[in-house]
């Protein structure tokens, strides 16, 4: 039962049995560029990157991306950079795992973003999606389809933020442009 | 340390006289079979059983019991015997299958109550009534033990028949072995009345499989050939399966089957699984423990990082809010300024309290883990006060890693993380006996500090000697002025040094020249692809060179040789352990800086000079030295000396 979230929709990260979520994964998958012609290696590969920015009081304090694969506190982990995408089978090519119990207490928001590092817009990418999964049971909480998403090179996907003693997730789905998460900072700040 | 085997795994047996200890879940017969190189039982003396207890080298127990201890003298078995099987057989009238009784444990131990060499728990059995638990086998002149754990639903007769005896002979021998045993009196008359060599009562018995006519060797079986390719499960012809689960681990973690790498995956939220020693990936228990210790190291670093960043954030926010309150003109009149300041402080306290709660939760988990991991560590990783040192024996193989000391953070000084480094050492070690190195060193007088540094070096040398096989590790000492003689006395007394500590300029240059030659020759041999062509006088064991009081007794040529050893030695097994005060070599100016940088600095007193690779906290290093008055070093050295005497008489 995947919820296809709409922009701005917020869901509380509560499990059906009332317990709060303890671990979520943001997964990003896309299909590798088609090989064509004799010099197949010259096909322009598509490299999408998933990042997570950790905010405390609207100030970025840590970031997890392909050059910093684990937040200093160990609560947010990137499974590693994938430069070419998958074969479009629906699996995650890059994933960011968040252990919500171990997120430091002053971090109150975590924003997930997707960037096209090689510069192709989402119009050119096939079968690209981004999803949020309850890591404890593999259940998909939310899914976005990226391809055909317009002439953008980045998207601010979602944020998880503290509400009371638990967490809630808000789907943002805000298109933007940029090569890495740094370029997106001005676009992220209004969502905090 | 006892090696806990899994099915199919083998382990060297270095002694010729061993004791087999059986601890079964029900009264069983323990027998021994003798087979040739192909695993065939041949000749008349193939089975030591209650009717014929003594065979050359083996004495099987006579009675039916759930505890057996019997001796095997591997030197005494016939030359054509290559496999000694330890068999467990359920007696007639007792439980009808091994699947119905608790798992049995079989161990190979030193003679006369010696320590266990290897143990194996027979898990995953079902309809079997006779099993081969272990096999001692000859491989290139040396004996090894292999965990077999395979059996026969059709009993001992089928087992023997599969070993190559003719069916009538196998039946006769099996009957002879079991005849002497009084049938177990069971209340259940129907079970007691069951024929002896049958198998699972629930399995449908066709007339052809009836016990009266033990048929051809049963279908699913090969004990010879590849004995651990599959587990014959019952007689139903189902495809064989192998259980790779570690029997000991399964039993110790009674909670969730596999404690997941993240606490988030605990069975119940807020109740992390109870930590288990060896809960990490790796091929061997040593590797698992090594990885687990490094996992604890990383988790503690990151947990502390989370706490520190939260506290720092809370402090900064309070400062900012206090500044705001101070500069806000509305607060100039009336008491609202005080209220704003109190709010800012309260907000800080609240966040810090939350961070503290999370820290305490994580630390409690790590402390619990350390409590189970520390006692489980093998000698190479263990503190000197760990009891493992008392039962320590010279091992067959070199260790994976070495403990250099303990690391801790100020948040929880009593939570000590063993500082383990992989062997062979990639970098040399430098024990800093200079007083300017740290505050704690400053507070000590020079003599005591130097003594402590040299004692620490000797403790490391003893540990390295003790955890390597005899003759696979040599220690050289350069002590130009003889100032370290008191610390070196135990090494000299036990006679385990490659040569007496080198003194004077001549001694220094002789030792360095010898090691330089060795490095050069081994390098050449390796480059030429002919490591076996070394001159006979070159010692191929790993070498440790302890240098005390550098640069006393060193001329320029010796300094150059030392730097050559530091740069080139590690790759060919020559390791450097410097005990030195950097200030004393200050006459060399910056020329020696690369040497100091290439060594890993340790201190004989607690010093927070080491950083972790993840978040670069400053960790306090504390050396691990034997407890006051302990004889553990001497005992370890005696064992090294004794082991050397046996390997080269």
From TrEMBL, chain A:
Secretion signal span = none
Superkingdom as given in the UniProt entry: Bacteria
Any idea where the TerD domain is?
1-179
Under InterPro entries, the record lists: Stress/Tellurium_Resist, TerD
Pfam family for this entry, one: TerD
Q: What is this protein called?
A: TerD family protein
Its source organism is Streptomyces yangpuensis
């Amino acid at each position: 039962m995947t919820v296809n979230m709409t922009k701005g929709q917020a869901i509380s990260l509560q499990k059906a049995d009332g317990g709060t979520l303890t671990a979520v994964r943001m997964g990003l998958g896309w299909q590798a560029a088609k090989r064509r012609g004799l010099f197949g290696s010259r096909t322009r590969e598509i490299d999408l990157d998933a990042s997570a920015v950790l905010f405390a009081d609207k100030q970025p304090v840590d970031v997890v991306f392909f050059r910093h694969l684990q937040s200093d506190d160990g609560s947010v982990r990137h499974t590693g950079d994938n430069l070419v995408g998958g074969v479009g089978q629906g699996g995650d090519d890059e994933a960011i795992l968040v252990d919500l119990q171990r997120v430091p207490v002053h971090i109150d928001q975590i924003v997930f973003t997707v960037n096209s590092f090689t510069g192709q817009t989402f119009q050119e990418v096939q079968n690209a999606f981004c999803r949020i999964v309850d890591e404890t049971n593999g259940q998909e909480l939310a899914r976005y389809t990226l391809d055909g998403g317009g002439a953008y090179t980045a998207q601010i996907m979602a944020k998880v933020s503290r509400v009371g003693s638990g967490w809630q997730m808000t789907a943002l789905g805000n298109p933007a442009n940029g090569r890495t998460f740094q370029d997106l900072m001005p676009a992220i700040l209004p969502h905090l | 340390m006892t090696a806990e085997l899994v099915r199919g795994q083998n382990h060297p047996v270095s002694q010729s006289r061993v004791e087999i200890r059986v601890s079964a879940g029900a009264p069983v017969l323990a027998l021994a079979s003798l087979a040739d190189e192909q695993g065939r039982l041949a000749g008349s003396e193939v089975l030591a059983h209650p009717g014929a207890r003594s065979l050359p080298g083996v004495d099987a127990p006579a009675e039916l019991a759930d505890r057996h201890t019997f001796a095997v003298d591997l030197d005494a078995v016939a030359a054509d015997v290559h496999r000694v099987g330890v068999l467990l057989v359920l007696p007639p009238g007792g439980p009808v299958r091994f699947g119905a009784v608790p798992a049995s444990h079989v161990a190979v131990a030193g003679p006369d109550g010696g320590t266990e060499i290897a143990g194996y728990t027979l898990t995953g059995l079902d309809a079997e009534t006779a099993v081969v638990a272990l096999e001692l086998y000859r491989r290139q002149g040396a004996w090894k033990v292999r965990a077999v754990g395979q059996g026969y639903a059709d009993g001992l007769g089928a087992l023997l028949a599969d070993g190559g005896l003719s069916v009538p002979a196998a039946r006769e021998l099996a009957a002879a072995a079991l005849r002497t045993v009084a049938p177990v009196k069971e209340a259940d008359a129907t079970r007691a009345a069951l024929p002896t060599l049958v198998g699972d009562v629930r399995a449908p018995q066709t007339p052809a499989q009836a016990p009266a006519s033990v048929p051809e060797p049963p279908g699913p079986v090969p004990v010879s050939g590849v004995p651990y390719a599959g587990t014959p499960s019952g007689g139903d012809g189902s495809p064989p399966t192998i259980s790779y689960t570690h029997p000991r681990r399964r039993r110790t973690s009674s909670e969730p089957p596999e404690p997941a790498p993240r606490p988030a995956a605990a069975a119940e939220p807020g109740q992390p699984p109870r930590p288990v020693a060896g809960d990490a990936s790796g091929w061997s228990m040593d590797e698992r423990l090594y990885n687990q210790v490094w996992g604890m190291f990383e988790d503690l670093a990151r947990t502390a990082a989370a706490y520190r960043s939260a506290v720092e954030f809370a402090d900064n926010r309070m400062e900012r809010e206090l500044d705001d309150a101070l500069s806000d003109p509305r607060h100039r009149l009336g008491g609202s300024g005080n209220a704003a300041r109190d709010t800012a402080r309260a907000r800080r306290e609240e966040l810090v309290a939350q961070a503290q709660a999370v820290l305490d939760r994580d630390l409690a988990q790590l402390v619990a883990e350390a409590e189970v991991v520390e006692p489980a560590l093998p000698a190479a990783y263990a503190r000197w006060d760990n009891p493992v040192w008392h039962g320590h024996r010279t091992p067959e193989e070199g260790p994976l890693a070495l403990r250099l000391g303990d690391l801790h953070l100020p948040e929880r000084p009593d939570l000590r993380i063993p500082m383990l480094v992989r062997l062979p050492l990639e970098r040399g070690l430098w024990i800093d006996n200079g007083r300017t190195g740290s505050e704690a060193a400053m507070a000590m007088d020079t003599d005591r500090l130097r003594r402590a540094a040299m004692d620490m070096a000797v403790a490391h040398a003893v540990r390295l000697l003790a955890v390597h096989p005899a003759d696979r590790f040599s220690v050289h000492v350069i002590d130009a002025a003889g100032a370290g003689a008191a610390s070196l006395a135990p090494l000299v007394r036990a006679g385990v040094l490659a040569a007496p500590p080198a003194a004077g300029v001549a001694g220094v240059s002789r030792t360095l020249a010898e090691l330089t030659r060795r490095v050069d020759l081994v390098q050449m041999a390796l480059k030429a692809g002919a490591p076996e062509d070394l001159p006979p006088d070159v010692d191929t064991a790993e070498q440790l060179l302890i240098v005390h009081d550098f640069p006393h007794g060193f001329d320029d040529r010796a300094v150059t040789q030392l730097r050559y050893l530091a740069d080139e030695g590690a790759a060919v097994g020559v390791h450097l352990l410097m005990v030195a005060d950097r200030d004393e070599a200050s006459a060399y100016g910056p020329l020696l800086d690369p040497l100091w940088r290439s060594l890993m600095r340790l201190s004989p007193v607690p010093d927070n000079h080491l950083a972790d690779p993840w978040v670069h906290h400053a960790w306090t290093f504390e050396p691990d030295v034997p407890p006051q008055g302990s004889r553990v070093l001497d005992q370890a050295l005696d064992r090294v000396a004794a082991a050397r005497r046996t390997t080269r008489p």
